[in-house]
Specification:
mainly alpha; flat; 16 helices; 342 residues
């Protein structure tokens, strides 16, 4: 709609407002909008790399599929039919497009080892892995946040030194080593828990503790550093001069300002859990997707490895995007920076 401004000597047509494209471009200046625009490109690039595993790997996928289906010595006609069924007789761009369409519909191929759809096999094991990962993240946060708060409140004193020593111990101890120690000390000598786990909530404690042990060290040191920076800032001195107690300054003012770096670190750690969970699941015989992928790697079951990589990529992108949204909600400086950019 065209509007008119009344000016001396007549009317003057006002300049048109920003159109939908201009609004979209302005919105793209927001960090979250930029991440949303980057999601399709990230997923497409990851999909191309993941799909390349199959044509670049040695061996004939058609033969491996037939062997998995109980045909140890397939004839040339059977191989040709299998290649046609798998789309291997097409050009590489056509194969990628075919794979992408099937993946978008939830079809990530058939396992060479079992002959079953990979999506079904992973879906049976993903709940146990998600249960383990969620518990590990909560445990790591339950250790990291209080440790960092104590270290920042008593910085450069013995509680700070003890907290940093604990964090360094966690950083220097691999998850599988912590798992073997827990099995030896807690399960075999202490008689608590079991060596063979069934993936239930009642048995998630020990493997989750191993994963948390490898996560909390980075989170604790990062949060401690952010808290110390906030407590040493000019605005903290101003708040103290107005009569705020040390506890209120730490919890009410410093902690919210220190949370955004921790949120992003938690997102990165949660995404990396997919790799760490595979090792811990194998040590504890946890029936999750990680131990299943380790077995598939040994058997060169490429469709399973591809599907696991797809799930891991999507999980990492989703968690990173969620971290951006949460950081923008917690820290008003990010929202103000985006408004200033517009």
């Amino acid at each position: 709609m065209t509007s008119h401004l009344r000016v001396p000597g007549g009317t003057k047509t006002a300049p048109p407002g920003p159109g939908p494209l201009a609004k979209a471009l302005a919105a793209a200046g927001h960090p979250v909008a930029r991440r949303l625009l980057a999601v399709p490109l990230t997923v497409a690039g990851a999909a191309l790399i993941i799909w390349s595993l199959l044509p670049l790997a040695p061996g004939d996928p058609a033969r491996l599929t037939l062997v998995a289906q109980g045909v140890p010595e397939p004839t040339p006609e059977q191989l040709a039919q299998a290649r046609a069924d798998l789309g291997l007789d097409r050009s590489l761009p056509e194969q990628f497009g075919h794979w992408l369409v099937r993946a978008a519909h939830g079809d990530l191929g058939t396992s060479f080892a079992s002959g079953r759809p990979v999506t079904h096999e992973l879906a049976e094991r993903l709940p146990a892995t998600l249960r383990l990962g969620a518990t590990a993240v909560l445990l790591a946060l339950a250790i990291a946040v209080p440790t960092a708060l104590v270290a920042a409140a008593f910085r450069r004193r013995w509680p700070d030194t003890a907290a940093r020593g604990l964090a360094l111990l966690g950083a220097a101890t691999p998850g599988f080593v912590a798992g073997l120690i827990l099995i030896q000390v807690v399960v075999l000598r202490g008689g608590f828990g079991s060596v063979v786990l069934d993936g239930s909530w009642g048995e998630v404690g020990l493997p989750a503790l191993c994963l948390a042990f490898g996560l909390f060290d980075v989170w604790s040191r990062l949060l401690r550093g952010s808290l110390v920076d906030a407590l040493d800032s000019d605005w903290a001195a101003s708040v103290t001069a107005r009569g705020a107690s040390g506890r209120r300054l730490l919890l009410r003012h410093a902690l919210p300002n220190a949370l955004p770096p921790l949120i992003h670190a938690v997102a990165v750690g949660a995404g990396a859990l997919w790799g760490g969970a595979a090792i811990v699941e194998t040590v504890f015989t946890w029936p999750g997707a990680g131990s299943y992928v380790v077995t598939s790697v040994k058997a060169r079951d490429l469709p399973v490895i591809q599907a696991f990589a797809v799930f891991a990529t999507l999980a990492y992108v989703a968690v990173s995007l969620l971290a951006d949204l949460l950081a923008a909600a917690v820290d008003p400086r990010l929202r103000g920076r985006a408004q200033g950019a517009r």
